[in-house]
Amino acid sequence: MQKMTIFTSVFTIAFALSMPLSVTFSAALSIWTFPSHAETPEALRERQEQGKTLMITKGCSSCHQLTKLPPAKGLVGPPLDNMAAQSYIAGVLPNSRENLTQFLLDPQKFHADSAMPTPDITQQEALRLVDYLWKE
Ligand code: HEC
């Protein structure tokens, strides 16, 4: 009888302890993992600003027109307004953020006769340019 009581109380204490512990643990875990998945508006704005700067520094603006970026008035390539709403990239590649990133890294891989020279950009810079081009 006494053994049973001890067993029960040990079990109860263990259970009482384990509940808050697991709750605390999962709360701590979610706080820890949350920022890496969260997209704050500020972070997105910052990436778009970097993309905007790259449009100029990487020479895109000398070949492309973009209404929201007045210095970009090149007429060698097509205007890049409403890029997010366009169905195809360069008329050959279904439009998506991923495909646009790949196109910017190597246009001729997708359109062999493309007059667009391969930009001198890193994968990260291509992602920033896409963030900016897809901005409303
Ligand atoms: C020397 C001129 C030139 C430069 C510099 C240039 N492009 Fe282009 N771009 C073109 C031409 C020409 C096309 C059309 C290519 C095709 O249809 O294959 C094009 C196509 C594109 C397209 C597809 C547009 C559409 O309507 O499908 C995007 C997006 C693009 N360029 C973005 C950029 C970005 C971003 C940069 C800078 C990193 C850049 N371009 C630099 C000439 C240029």
Write structural notes for this entry.
Residues 1-38 form the signal peptide. This protein has 136 residues and is mostly helical. The chain has 2 domains: 1-38; 41-133, Cytochrome Bc1 Complex, Chain D, domain 2, CATH 1.10.760. Helix content is 57%, strand content 3%. Helix 3 packs across helix 5 (123-133). Heme C binds next to loops.
CATH homolog superfamily of the largest domain: Cytochrome c-like domain
Q: How many strand segments?
A: 2
Order of strands in the sheet with the most strands? 1-2
User: How much of the polypeptide forms β-strand, as a percent range?
Assistant: under 5%
Ions, cofactors and other ligands present here are: heme C
- Identify the CATH class of the largest domain: Mainly Alpha
Using only C-alpha atoms, the radius of gyration works out to 26 Å
**Protein structure class:** mainly alpha
Spell the H/E element sequence.
HHEEHHH
Specify the biggest β-sheet.
2 strands, antiparallel
Number of helix segments? Answer: 5
Q: Can you give the mean pLDDT?
A: 83
Shape type? globular
| Number of separate domains | 2
What CATH architecture of the largest domain would you give?
Orthogonal Bundle
What is the straight-line distance between the termini?
Answer: 73 Å
The amount of helix comes to 55-70%
CATH domain topology of the largest domain: Cytochrome Bc1 Complex, Chain D, domain 2
Give unreliable regions as ranges: 10-15, 23-33
